[in-house]
Design goal:
- By secondary structure, the protein is of the alpha+beta class.
- Helices cover 23% and strands 29% of the residues.
- The strands form ten sheets. Strands 21, 23, 24, 26, 30 and 34 form a six-stranded antiparallel β-sheet that branches. Strands 22, 25, 27, 28, 29 and 33 form a six-stranded antiparallel β-sheet that branches.
- Strand 3 (125-130) and strand 4 (136-141) form a beta hairpin.
- Helix 4 crosses helix 7 (102-110) and helix 11 packs across helix 12.
Length: 586
Protein backbone atom coordinates (compact mmCIF):
# COMPACT_ATOMS: atom_id res chain seq x y z
CA UNK A 1 0.00 0.00 0.00
CA UNK A 2 2.60 2.53 -1.09
CA UNK A 3 2.00 6.27 -1.45
CA UNK A 4 -1.54 6.13 -0.04
CA UNK A 5 -2.92 9.56 0.83
CA UNK A 6 -4.89 10.09 4.03
CA UNK A 7 -8.54 9.29 3.49
CA UNK A 8 -10.99 12.19 3.45
CA UNK A 9 -14.24 12.01 5.46
CA UNK A 10 -16.89 10.10 3.53
CA UNK A 11 -19.31 13.05 3.49
CA UNK A 12 -16.70 15.34 1.95
CA UNK A 13 -15.86 12.68 -0.63
CA UNK A 14 -19.57 12.43 -1.63
CA UNK A 15 -19.85 16.22 -1.95
CA UNK A 16 -16.75 16.37 -4.20
CA UNK A 17 -18.10 13.57 -6.38
CA UNK A 18 -21.50 15.25 -6.66
CA UNK A 19 -19.97 18.56 -7.69
CA UNK A 20 -17.71 16.85 -10.24
CA UNK A 21 -20.59 14.85 -11.73
CA UNK A 22 -22.72 17.99 -12.03
CA UNK A 23 -19.98 19.95 -13.84
CA UNK A 24 -19.07 17.07 -16.13
CA UNK A 25 -22.71 16.45 -17.01
CA UNK A 26 -23.29 20.10 -17.93
CA UNK A 27 -20.25 20.18 -20.22
CA UNK A 28 -21.20 16.93 -21.90
CA UNK A 29 -24.80 18.09 -22.46
CA UNK A 30 -23.66 21.37 -23.98
CA UNK A 31 -21.41 19.59 -26.47
CA UNK A 32 -24.00 16.94 -27.21
CA UNK A 33 -26.69 19.56 -27.98
CA UNK A 34 -24.67 20.56 -31.03
CA UNK A 35 -25.67 17.27 -32.68
CA UNK A 36 -28.74 15.89 -30.90
CA UNK A 37 -32.02 17.47 -29.88
CA UNK A 38 -32.96 15.66 -26.71
CA UNK A 39 -31.00 15.60 -23.47
CA UNK A 40 -32.56 12.21 -22.81
CA UNK A 41 -30.20 10.87 -25.54
CA UNK A 42 -27.28 12.15 -23.53
CA UNK A 43 -28.39 10.36 -20.43
CA UNK A 44 -28.97 7.19 -22.39
CA UNK A 45 -25.53 7.24 -24.06
CA UNK A 46 -23.76 8.02 -20.80
CA UNK A 47 -25.21 4.92 -19.26
CA UNK A 48 -24.19 2.78 -22.24
CA UNK A 49 -20.76 1.42 -23.12
CA UNK A 50 -18.68 2.61 -26.03
CA UNK A 51 -19.35 -0.59 -27.92
CA UNK A 52 -23.12 -0.42 -27.56
CA UNK A 53 -23.16 3.23 -28.64
CA UNK A 54 -21.08 2.37 -31.70
CA UNK A 55 -23.22 -0.68 -32.47
CA UNK A 56 -26.50 1.21 -32.45
CA UNK A 57 -25.17 4.26 -34.29
CA UNK A 58 -26.54 4.42 -37.82
CA UNK A 59 -23.34 5.74 -39.44
CA UNK A 60 -20.68 3.52 -37.80
CA UNK A 61 -21.77 0.08 -39.02
CA UNK A 62 -18.58 -0.65 -40.98
CA UNK A 63 -16.38 0.39 -38.06
CA UNK A 64 -18.54 -1.76 -35.76
CA UNK A 65 -18.13 -4.78 -38.03
CA UNK A 66 -14.32 -4.48 -37.94
CA UNK A 67 -14.41 -4.15 -34.15
CA UNK A 68 -16.54 -7.28 -33.92
CA UNK A 69 -14.29 -9.17 -36.34
CA UNK A 70 -11.15 -8.39 -34.31
CA UNK A 71 -12.67 -8.89 -30.84
CA UNK A 72 -12.54 -5.23 -29.87
CA UNK A 73 -16.31 -5.17 -29.35
CA UNK A 74 -15.73 -6.97 -26.07
CA UNK A 75 -12.88 -4.67 -25.08
CA UNK A 76 -14.99 -1.55 -25.62
CA UNK A 77 -17.89 -3.15 -23.73
CA UNK A 78 -15.84 -3.48 -20.50
CA UNK A 79 -15.10 -0.96 -17.76
CA UNK A 80 -11.73 0.36 -19.02
CA UNK A 81 -11.97 4.01 -20.14
CA UNK A 82 -11.15 4.83 -23.77
CA UNK A 83 -11.58 7.57 -26.35
CA UNK A 84 -12.59 6.38 -29.81
CA UNK A 85 -12.15 8.39 -33.00
CA UNK A 86 -14.57 6.41 -35.19
CA UNK A 87 -14.51 6.63 -39.03
CA UNK A 88 -18.01 7.01 -40.47
CA UNK A 89 -19.43 4.62 -43.05
CA UNK A 90 -18.15 4.85 -46.63
CA UNK A 91 -15.41 7.33 -45.72
CA UNK A 92 -12.55 4.81 -45.50
CA UNK A 93 -11.18 1.74 -47.28
CA UNK A 94 -13.49 -0.74 -45.57
CA UNK A 95 -13.26 -3.56 -48.15
CA UNK A 96 -9.47 -3.36 -48.26
CA UNK A 97 -9.27 -3.64 -44.48
CA UNK A 98 -11.52 -6.72 -44.54
CA UNK A 99 -8.96 -8.41 -46.79
CA UNK A 100 -6.17 -7.93 -44.23
CA UNK A 101 -5.40 -10.40 -41.52
CA UNK A 102 -6.71 -9.56 -38.06
CA UNK A 103 -3.26 -8.72 -36.67
CA UNK A 104 -2.63 -6.10 -39.35
CA UNK A 105 -6.12 -4.62 -39.09
CA UNK A 106 -5.77 -4.27 -35.33
CA UNK A 107 -2.40 -2.55 -35.52
CA UNK A 108 -2.93 -0.31 -38.54
CA UNK A 109 -6.61 0.55 -38.11
CA UNK A 110 -8.41 -0.41 -34.88
CA UNK A 111 -5.71 0.55 -32.39
CA UNK A 112 -4.84 3.54 -34.57
CA UNK A 113 -8.23 5.07 -33.63
CA UNK A 114 -8.46 4.27 -29.91
CA UNK A 115 -6.63 5.77 -26.94
CA UNK A 116 -6.77 4.99 -23.25
CA UNK A 117 -8.37 7.59 -20.99
CA UNK A 118 -11.00 10.21 -21.77
CA UNK A 119 -10.27 13.03 -24.23
CA UNK A 120 -13.37 15.21 -24.74
CA UNK A 121 -13.28 17.92 -27.41
CA UNK A 122 -13.79 20.97 -25.22
CA UNK A 123 -12.02 24.29 -24.80
CA UNK A 124 -8.62 24.85 -26.40
CA UNK A 125 -6.66 21.65 -27.07
CA UNK A 126 -3.07 21.21 -28.21
CA UNK A 127 -1.66 17.89 -27.07
CA UNK A 128 -0.05 14.66 -28.22
CA UNK A 129 -1.91 11.44 -27.46
CA UNK A 130 -0.66 7.87 -27.71
CA UNK A 131 -3.08 5.44 -29.34
CA UNK A 132 -3.33 1.77 -28.35
CA UNK A 133 -0.77 0.86 -31.03
CA UNK A 134 1.58 3.36 -29.33
CA UNK A 135 1.43 5.77 -32.27
CA UNK A 136 1.55 9.43 -31.25
CA UNK A 137 -1.29 11.57 -32.61
CA UNK A 138 -1.77 15.31 -32.33
CA UNK A 139 -5.17 16.39 -30.95
CA UNK A 140 -5.86 20.10 -31.40
CA UNK A 141 -8.51 22.76 -31.84
CA UNK A 142 -10.79 25.25 -30.14
CA UNK A 143 -14.08 25.83 -32.01
CA UNK A 144 -13.44 22.85 -34.27
CA UNK A 145 -11.11 19.97 -33.56
CA UNK A 146 -8.55 17.90 -35.42
CA UNK A 147 -6.90 14.57 -34.75
CA UNK A 148 -3.65 14.25 -36.68
CA UNK A 149 -4.93 16.90 -39.11
CA UNK A 150 -8.29 15.16 -39.72
CA UNK A 151 -11.43 17.17 -38.81
CA UNK A 152 -13.77 15.65 -36.22
CA UNK A 153 -17.36 15.51 -37.41
CA UNK A 154 -19.54 14.59 -34.41
CA UNK A 155 -18.07 15.36 -30.99
CA UNK A 156 -18.29 14.00 -27.48
CA UNK A 157 -20.63 11.02 -27.61
CA UNK A 158 -20.31 10.35 -23.89
CA UNK A 159 -20.42 6.72 -22.81
CA UNK A 160 -20.16 4.96 -19.50
CA UNK A 161 -16.54 4.01 -20.26
CA UNK A 162 -15.31 6.91 -22.39
CA UNK A 163 -16.02 9.18 -25.34
CA UNK A 164 -16.63 8.77 -29.07
CA UNK A 165 -15.81 11.32 -31.78
CA UNK A 166 -16.61 10.56 -35.40
CA UNK A 167 -14.51 11.26 -38.49
CA UNK A 168 -15.12 11.44 -42.21
CA UNK A 169 -12.14 9.27 -43.13
CA UNK A 170 -9.54 7.23 -41.27
CA UNK A 171 -6.44 8.40 -39.43
CA UNK A 172 -3.46 7.56 -41.60
CA UNK A 173 -1.28 4.80 -40.17
CA UNK A 174 2.40 5.65 -40.10
CA UNK A 175 4.91 2.88 -39.58
CA UNK A 176 7.82 3.54 -37.29
CA UNK A 177 11.26 3.28 -38.87
CA UNK A 178 11.77 -0.34 -37.87
CA UNK A 179 8.33 -1.39 -39.17
CA UNK A 180 9.02 0.41 -42.44
CA UNK A 181 12.36 -1.33 -42.83
CA UNK A 182 10.49 -4.65 -42.74
CA UNK A 183 7.94 -3.69 -45.38
CA UNK A 184 9.43 -1.04 -47.69
CA UNK A 185 8.80 -1.79 -51.35
CA UNK A 186 12.34 -0.79 -52.30
CA UNK A 187 15.45 -2.90 -53.06
CA UNK A 188 16.79 -2.68 -49.50
CA UNK A 189 17.07 -6.39 -48.66
CA UNK A 190 20.73 -6.15 -47.67
CA UNK A 191 20.32 -3.71 -44.81
CA UNK A 192 16.96 -5.22 -43.83
CA UNK A 193 18.37 -8.73 -43.56
CA UNK A 194 21.37 -7.54 -41.58
CA UNK A 195 19.33 -5.56 -39.04
CA UNK A 196 16.72 -8.27 -38.53
CA UNK A 197 19.39 -10.95 -38.10
CA UNK A 198 19.87 -9.51 -34.59
CA UNK A 199 16.18 -9.81 -33.64
CA UNK A 200 15.43 -12.05 -30.70
CA UNK A 201 12.71 -12.72 -28.16
CA UNK A 202 13.81 -12.60 -24.54
CA UNK A 203 11.81 -13.88 -21.59
CA UNK A 204 10.55 -11.10 -19.37
CA UNK A 205 11.06 -12.93 -16.09
CA UNK A 206 9.47 -10.21 -13.98
CA UNK A 207 6.17 -10.52 -15.90
CA UNK A 208 6.25 -14.26 -16.56
CA UNK A 209 4.74 -16.78 -14.15
CA UNK A 210 7.54 -18.90 -12.71
CA UNK A 211 7.28 -22.66 -12.68
CA UNK A 212 9.53 -25.29 -11.10
CA UNK A 213 13.31 -25.31 -11.45
CA UNK A 214 14.28 -28.26 -13.67
CA UNK A 215 17.90 -29.40 -13.83
CA UNK A 216 18.96 -26.08 -12.38
CA UNK A 217 17.01 -24.09 -14.98
CA UNK A 218 14.02 -21.87 -14.15
CA UNK A 219 10.91 -22.85 -16.10
CA UNK A 220 7.83 -20.71 -16.64
CA UNK A 221 4.15 -21.65 -16.68
CA UNK A 222 3.07 -18.48 -18.47
CA UNK A 223 5.90 -16.90 -20.46
CA UNK A 224 5.94 -13.25 -21.48
CA UNK A 225 8.56 -12.19 -24.03
CA UNK A 226 9.90 -8.86 -25.19
CA UNK A 227 11.56 -8.03 -28.50
CA UNK A 228 15.24 -7.14 -28.48
CA UNK A 229 17.77 -6.22 -31.14
CA UNK A 230 21.35 -6.14 -29.88
CA UNK A 231 22.64 -4.25 -32.92
CA UNK A 232 20.17 -1.40 -32.45
CA UNK A 233 21.08 -1.26 -28.78
CA UNK A 234 24.78 -1.18 -29.63
CA UNK A 235 24.29 1.88 -31.80
CA UNK A 236 21.76 3.49 -29.44
CA UNK A 237 19.32 3.58 -32.35
CA UNK A 238 15.91 2.67 -30.90
CA UNK A 239 14.06 2.99 -34.21
CA UNK A 240 11.35 0.61 -33.00
CA UNK A 241 10.21 2.96 -30.21
CA UNK A 242 7.31 5.33 -30.75
CA UNK A 243 8.47 7.81 -28.12
CA UNK A 244 11.71 8.55 -30.00
CA UNK A 245 12.62 10.62 -33.06
CA UNK A 246 15.23 9.32 -35.47
CA UNK A 247 16.44 9.72 -39.01
CA UNK A 248 17.71 6.62 -40.75
CA UNK A 249 19.59 6.50 -44.04
CA UNK A 250 18.44 3.32 -45.75
CA UNK A 251 20.90 2.25 -48.46
CA UNK A 252 19.59 0.39 -51.46
CA UNK A 253 21.27 -2.88 -52.27
CA UNK A 254 23.50 -1.00 -54.72
CA UNK A 255 24.52 1.54 -52.07
CA UNK A 256 25.11 -1.25 -49.55
CA UNK A 257 27.33 -3.27 -51.88
CA UNK A 258 29.29 -0.22 -53.04
CA UNK A 259 29.92 0.96 -49.47
CA UNK A 260 30.87 -2.52 -48.29
CA UNK A 261 33.43 -2.92 -51.08
CA UNK A 262 34.90 0.50 -50.31
CA UNK A 263 35.18 -0.11 -46.57
CA UNK A 264 36.66 -3.59 -46.99
CA UNK A 265 39.72 -2.05 -48.66
CA UNK A 266 40.66 -0.71 -45.22
CA UNK A 267 40.06 -4.09 -43.56
CA UNK A 268 42.63 -6.36 -45.17
CA UNK A 269 43.25 -9.15 -42.64
CA UNK A 270 45.40 -12.26 -43.07
CA UNK A 271 44.66 -15.60 -41.39
CA UNK A 272 48.04 -15.27 -39.63
CA UNK A 273 50.99 -12.89 -39.40
CA UNK A 274 54.29 -12.56 -37.56
CA UNK A 275 54.46 -10.15 -34.66
CA UNK A 276 57.55 -8.73 -32.97
CA UNK A 277 57.23 -6.85 -29.71
CA UNK A 278 59.00 -3.48 -30.11
CA UNK A 279 62.28 -3.01 -28.31
CA UNK A 280 64.32 -5.79 -26.66
CA UNK A 281 64.14 -9.36 -28.00
CA UNK A 282 63.99 -10.56 -31.58
CA UNK A 283 61.60 -13.49 -31.14
CA UNK A 284 58.53 -13.24 -33.33
CA UNK A 285 55.08 -14.55 -32.38
CA UNK A 286 52.60 -15.95 -34.89
CA UNK A 287 49.20 -14.33 -34.49
CA UNK A 288 46.29 -16.36 -35.88
CA UNK A 289 42.80 -15.06 -36.66
CA UNK A 290 39.83 -17.41 -36.53
CA UNK A 291 38.38 -16.24 -39.85
CA UNK A 292 39.96 -13.24 -41.56
CA UNK A 293 37.28 -12.99 -44.29
CA UNK A 294 34.42 -13.06 -41.80
CA UNK A 295 36.18 -10.38 -39.77
CA UNK A 296 36.58 -8.19 -42.86
CA UNK A 297 32.90 -8.62 -43.69
CA UNK A 298 31.74 -7.96 -40.13
CA UNK A 299 33.87 -4.85 -39.65
CA UNK A 300 32.59 -3.35 -42.90
CA UNK A 301 28.95 -3.92 -41.95
CA UNK A 302 29.44 -2.47 -38.48
CA UNK A 303 30.91 0.71 -39.96
CA UNK A 304 28.00 1.02 -42.37
CA UNK A 305 25.56 0.74 -39.47
CA UNK A 306 27.53 3.37 -37.54
CA UNK A 307 26.90 5.86 -40.33
CA UNK A 308 23.14 5.63 -40.91
CA UNK A 309 21.35 6.42 -37.61
CA UNK A 310 20.72 9.96 -36.28
CA UNK A 311 18.86 11.05 -33.15
CA UNK A 312 16.68 14.00 -34.19
CA UNK A 313 16.67 15.49 -30.69
CA UNK A 314 20.44 15.94 -30.47
CA UNK A 315 22.05 19.35 -31.17
CA UNK A 316 21.84 20.38 -34.84
CA UNK A 317 20.28 17.01 -35.71
CA UNK A 318 16.97 18.69 -34.86
CA UNK A 319 17.04 20.26 -38.33
CA UNK A 320 16.53 16.82 -39.81
CA UNK A 321 12.94 16.88 -38.51
CA UNK A 322 11.96 19.53 -41.06
CA UNK A 323 14.44 18.83 -43.86
CA UNK A 324 12.53 18.50 -47.11
CA UNK A 325 13.46 16.26 -49.97
CA UNK A 326 15.49 18.24 -52.52
CA UNK A 327 16.42 20.94 -49.98
CA UNK A 328 19.95 21.64 -48.80
CA UNK A 329 20.59 20.94 -45.13
CA UNK A 330 21.86 24.09 -43.41
CA UNK A 331 23.54 23.08 -40.17
CA UNK A 332 26.80 23.36 -38.31
CA UNK A 333 27.19 19.60 -37.93
CA UNK A 334 25.44 16.25 -37.62
CA UNK A 335 26.30 13.41 -35.29
CA UNK A 336 25.35 9.77 -35.70
CA UNK A 337 23.95 7.88 -32.72
CA UNK A 338 27.35 6.19 -32.43
CA UNK A 339 29.16 9.52 -32.04
CA UNK A 340 30.57 10.13 -35.53
CA UNK A 341 30.48 13.82 -36.42
CA UNK A 342 30.20 15.52 -39.81
CA UNK A 343 30.44 19.25 -40.35
CA UNK A 344 28.32 21.37 -42.68
CA UNK A 345 29.53 20.41 -46.16
CA UNK A 346 29.68 16.67 -45.50
CA UNK A 347 26.39 16.73 -43.56
CA UNK A 348 24.53 18.42 -46.42
CA UNK A 349 25.92 15.93 -48.93
CA UNK A 350 24.57 12.93 -46.99
CA UNK A 351 20.96 13.58 -48.04
CA UNK A 352 21.66 14.71 -51.61
CA UNK A 353 19.52 12.82 -54.15
CA UNK A 354 17.88 10.73 -51.38
CA UNK A 355 14.12 10.15 -51.04
CA UNK A 356 12.41 11.05 -47.76
CA UNK A 357 9.56 8.98 -46.27
CA UNK A 358 7.74 10.12 -43.14
CA UNK A 359 7.50 7.72 -40.22
CA UNK A 360 5.68 7.82 -36.89
CA UNK A 361 8.97 8.29 -35.05
CA UNK A 362 10.94 10.33 -37.57
CA UNK A 363 11.86 9.73 -41.20
CA UNK A 364 13.84 7.44 -43.47
CA UNK A 365 15.87 8.52 -46.49
CA UNK A 366 16.28 5.96 -49.26
CA UNK A 367 19.64 6.49 -50.92
CA UNK A 368 21.57 4.91 -53.79
CA UNK A 369 24.87 6.05 -52.29
CA UNK A 370 26.19 6.46 -48.76
CA UNK A 371 27.82 9.84 -49.42
CA UNK A 372 29.94 9.89 -46.27
CA UNK A 373 33.72 10.47 -46.46
CA UNK A 374 35.75 7.41 -45.52
CA UNK A 375 37.72 9.38 -42.90
CA UNK A 376 34.51 10.26 -41.06
CA UNK A 377 33.55 6.68 -40.24
CA UNK A 378 35.79 3.81 -41.29
CA UNK A 379 39.22 5.35 -41.93
CA UNK A 380 39.63 8.25 -39.49
CA UNK A 381 42.65 10.27 -38.56
CA UNK A 382 44.38 8.51 -35.65
CA UNK A 383 45.86 10.63 -32.88
CA UNK A 384 48.14 8.95 -30.33
CA UNK A 385 48.82 11.03 -27.23
CA UNK A 386 52.47 10.48 -26.28
CA UNK A 387 51.79 10.77 -22.54
CA UNK A 388 49.42 7.79 -22.75
CA UNK A 389 51.48 5.01 -21.17
CA UNK A 390 49.44 2.27 -22.86
CA UNK A 391 50.94 3.18 -26.24
CA UNK A 392 54.50 3.61 -24.95
CA UNK A 393 55.98 0.29 -26.05
CA UNK A 394 59.67 0.70 -25.22
CA UNK A 395 62.22 3.43 -24.55
CA UNK A 396 65.99 3.57 -24.10
CA UNK A 397 68.83 5.91 -23.23
CA UNK A 398 66.67 8.09 -21.02
CA UNK A 399 67.36 9.71 -17.70
CA UNK A 400 64.59 7.64 -16.12
CA UNK A 401 61.13 7.07 -17.61
CA UNK A 402 59.51 9.59 -19.96
CA UNK A 403 58.56 12.63 -17.91
CA UNK A 404 54.95 13.74 -18.38
CA UNK A 405 54.82 17.55 -18.54
CA UNK A 406 51.79 19.78 -18.05
CA UNK A 407 51.31 23.02 -19.96
CA UNK A 408 49.96 25.20 -17.18
CA UNK A 409 50.01 28.58 -18.89
CA UNK A 410 51.46 28.47 -22.36
CA UNK A 411 54.10 31.03 -23.29
CA UNK A 412 52.20 33.43 -25.57
CA UNK A 413 55.28 33.82 -27.77
CA UNK A 414 55.15 30.13 -28.68
CA UNK A 415 52.96 29.43 -31.66
CA UNK A 416 50.79 26.32 -31.86
CA UNK A 417 48.79 24.20 -29.46
CA UNK A 418 49.66 21.24 -27.20
CA UNK A 419 46.80 18.74 -27.30
CA UNK A 420 45.22 18.16 -23.91
CA UNK A 421 47.99 20.43 -22.50
CA UNK A 422 50.27 17.43 -21.85
CA UNK A 423 53.39 16.07 -23.49
CA UNK A 424 56.34 13.85 -22.61
CA UNK A 425 59.95 14.88 -22.22
CA UNK A 426 62.67 12.32 -23.02
CA UNK A 427 65.85 13.55 -21.41
CA UNK A 428 69.00 11.54 -22.33
CA UNK A 429 70.88 9.84 -19.51
CA UNK A 430 74.02 11.71 -20.56
CA UNK A 431 74.90 14.51 -22.97
CA UNK A 432 76.50 12.11 -25.45
CA UNK A 433 73.59 9.71 -26.04
CA UNK A 434 70.40 9.96 -28.08
CA UNK A 435 67.11 8.94 -26.44
CA UNK A 436 64.55 6.92 -28.37
CA UNK A 437 61.02 5.74 -27.79
CA UNK A 438 58.74 3.19 -29.49
CA UNK A 439 54.99 3.80 -29.72
CA UNK A 440 52.34 1.23 -30.53
CA UNK A 441 50.03 2.36 -33.34
CA UNK A 442 46.78 0.44 -32.69
CA UNK A 443 43.82 0.22 -35.05
CA UNK A 444 45.82 0.97 -38.18
CA UNK A 445 43.83 0.30 -41.36
CA UNK A 446 45.21 -1.15 -44.57
CA UNK A 447 45.76 2.20 -46.26
CA UNK A 448 48.31 4.95 -46.83
CA UNK A 449 48.95 7.48 -44.05
CA UNK A 450 50.92 10.65 -43.78
CA UNK A 451 52.57 10.27 -40.38
CA UNK A 452 53.20 13.37 -38.29
CA UNK A 453 54.97 13.86 -34.96
CA UNK A 454 54.11 16.96 -32.93
CA UNK A 455 57.14 18.30 -31.04
CA UNK A 456 57.16 20.86 -28.24
CA UNK A 457 59.81 23.56 -27.64
CA UNK A 458 61.60 23.82 -24.29
CA UNK A 459 60.15 27.26 -23.51
CA UNK A 460 56.50 26.19 -23.83
CA UNK A 461 55.64 27.32 -20.29
CA UNK A 462 57.73 30.47 -19.95
CA UNK A 463 59.17 33.17 -22.15
CA UNK A 464 61.84 33.56 -19.49
CA UNK A 465 63.30 30.12 -20.22
CA UNK A 466 66.99 30.40 -19.36
CA UNK A 467 68.36 27.63 -21.55
CA UNK A 468 69.43 27.89 -25.17
CA UNK A 469 66.67 27.02 -27.63
CA UNK A 470 67.84 24.52 -30.22
CA UNK A 471 66.02 22.43 -32.82
CA UNK A 472 65.96 18.62 -32.82
CA UNK A 473 67.37 16.26 -35.38
CA UNK A 474 65.36 13.03 -35.43
CA UNK A 475 64.54 9.99 -37.50
CA UNK A 476 61.59 7.59 -37.62
CA UNK A 477 61.35 3.82 -38.11
CA UNK A 478 58.14 1.87 -38.79
CA UNK A 479 57.68 -1.76 -37.69
CA UNK A 480 54.90 -3.48 -39.66
CA UNK A 481 53.82 -6.60 -41.61
CA UNK A 482 54.03 -6.95 -45.35
CA UNK A 483 51.22 -8.31 -47.54
CA UNK A 484 52.33 -11.89 -46.75
CA UNK A 485 52.35 -11.31 -43.00
CA UNK A 486 56.14 -11.24 -42.58
CA UNK A 487 57.58 -8.82 -40.05
CA UNK A 488 59.44 -5.81 -41.50
CA UNK A 489 61.07 -2.56 -40.36
CA UNK A 490 61.53 0.53 -42.50
CA UNK A 491 63.42 3.72 -41.80
CA UNK A 492 61.44 6.64 -43.11
CA UNK A 493 63.14 9.13 -45.36
CA UNK A 494 64.08 11.92 -45.11
CA UNK A 495 65.54 12.71 -41.70
CA UNK A 496 63.56 15.68 -40.40
CA UNK A 497 64.79 18.85 -38.75
CA UNK A 498 62.46 20.19 -36.05
CA UNK A 499 61.02 23.67 -36.56
CA UNK A 500 63.24 25.98 -38.63
CA UNK A 501 66.30 25.11 -40.63
CA UNK A 502 69.68 26.04 -39.20
CA UNK A 503 70.04 28.34 -42.19
CA UNK A 504 67.39 30.62 -40.71
CA UNK A 505 68.68 33.86 -39.28
CA UNK A 506 66.70 33.34 -36.07
CA UNK A 507 65.30 30.20 -34.48
CA UNK A 508 61.58 30.66 -33.75
CA UNK A 509 60.17 28.25 -31.16
CA UNK A 510 56.77 26.74 -31.88
CA UNK A 511 54.72 23.59 -31.34
CA UNK A 512 55.77 22.00 -34.59
CA UNK A 513 53.94 19.31 -36.55
CA UNK A 514 56.68 17.41 -38.38
CA UNK A 515 55.93 15.12 -41.32
CA UNK A 516 57.75 11.89 -40.54
CA UNK A 517 56.81 10.47 -43.92
CA UNK A 518 54.21 8.70 -46.01
CA UNK A 519 53.66 5.01 -45.40
CA UNK A 520 51.32 2.32 -46.74
CA UNK A 521 50.29 -0.47 -44.39
CA UNK A 522 49.36 -3.63 -46.34
CA UNK A 523 47.34 -5.09 -43.43
CA UNK A 524 44.65 -3.87 -41.08
CA UNK A 525 45.16 -4.18 -37.31
CA UNK A 526 41.76 -2.78 -36.37
CA UNK A 527 40.49 -4.55 -33.27
CA UNK A 528 43.54 -6.79 -32.90
CA UNK A 529 44.32 -6.79 -29.21
CA UNK A 530 44.31 -9.28 -26.38
CA UNK A 531 44.28 -7.97 -22.83
CA UNK A 532 47.25 -5.64 -22.48
CA UNK A 533 48.78 -6.95 -25.70
CA UNK A 534 48.42 -4.69 -28.72
CA UNK A 535 49.15 -6.48 -31.96
CA UNK A 536 49.88 -3.42 -34.03
CA UNK A 537 52.63 -1.66 -35.94
CA UNK A 538 54.96 0.64 -34.08
CA UNK A 539 56.91 3.82 -34.74
CA UNK A 540 60.32 4.52 -33.25
CA UNK A 541 61.17 8.20 -32.67
CA UNK A 542 64.91 8.64 -32.16
CA UNK A 543 67.17 11.64 -31.64
CA UNK A 544 69.87 11.51 -34.31
CA UNK A 545 72.53 13.98 -33.19
CA UNK A 546 76.25 13.22 -33.56
CA UNK A 547 78.78 14.53 -31.08
CA UNK A 548 79.98 16.95 -33.71
CA UNK A 549 76.43 18.35 -34.07
CA UNK A 550 75.59 18.48 -30.36
CA UNK A 551 76.38 22.18 -30.07
CA UNK A 552 73.67 23.01 -32.63
CA UNK A 553 70.91 20.52 -31.72
CA UNK A 554 68.95 19.53 -28.63
CA UNK A 555 69.03 15.80 -27.87
CA UNK A 556 66.08 16.03 -25.45
CA UNK A 557 62.81 15.09 -27.19
CA UNK A 558 59.53 16.72 -26.19
CA UNK A 559 56.68 14.88 -27.90
CA UNK A 560 53.04 15.92 -27.81
CA UNK A 561 51.45 13.26 -30.05
CA UNK A 562 51.67 11.12 -33.17
CA UNK A 563 49.14 11.83 -35.94
CA UNK A 564 48.36 9.27 -38.63
CA UNK A 565 46.31 11.10 -41.25
CA UNK A 566 44.93 9.08 -44.17
CA UNK A 567 46.61 10.35 -47.32
CA UNK A 568 43.24 10.68 -49.05
CA UNK A 569 42.20 13.10 -46.28
CA UNK A 570 45.47 15.04 -46.52
CA UNK A 571 45.03 15.32 -50.30
CA UNK A 572 41.46 16.58 -49.83
CA UNK A 573 42.61 19.18 -47.29
CA UNK A 574 45.28 20.43 -49.68
CA UNK A 575 42.55 21.04 -52.27
CA UNK A 576 40.10 22.47 -49.70
CA UNK A 577 42.17 24.47 -47.19
CA UNK A 578 39.13 25.54 -45.14
CA UNK A 579 37.74 22.01 -44.83
CA UNK A 580 36.50 21.18 -41.35
CA UNK A 581 36.38 17.63 -40.06
CA UNK A 582 36.14 15.89 -36.70
CA UNK A 583 39.60 15.66 -35.17
CA UNK A 584 38.54 14.49 -31.73
CA UNK A 585 39.10 16.13 -28.37
CA UNK A 586 42.54 17.72 -28.27
Amino acid sequence: MKNMKARKPLSLFIIHCSLFFSVALNIACSDWDDHFDANTSVLESQNTTLWKNIEKSGNLTQFAEILRKTGYDKRLDASQTYTVWAPEDDTFDYQTLLSYGDERVVKEFVENHIARNNYPASGEIDKDIYMLNEKKMHFSGKDSYLIQGLLLNQLNMSSSNGTIHTLKGRIAFLSNIYEALLSLDYPVDSVRDYVTSFDEKIINESKSKAGPVVNGEQTFLDTIYYEHNEMLSLFDAHINREDSSYTMLIPTNKAWNDAQAKIQKYCNYLPSFKYLEPGGGRTTTTITLKDAEVMKDSVAKVYMMASIFYNNNFCDNTKLKTLKEGSVLDCDSLMTTHGYKMYADDAANVFDKAERLEMSNGAVWITDSLRIPSWTICNPEIRLEAENQSIQAYYTYLNGAPNVKEVTKQNEEVLGHVSRSRYIELEPQSKNVNPEIYFYMPNIRSTTYNIYVVLVPANINSKYYSGELKPNLIDFTIGYNDEKGSYKQQLLDPVTVHVDSLNSEQYTAKVDTVLAGEFTFPLSYLGLSSGTKRYSPFIRVRSKVTNAESANYDRTLRIDCIILRPKELDDYISEHPDYKYDRGDY
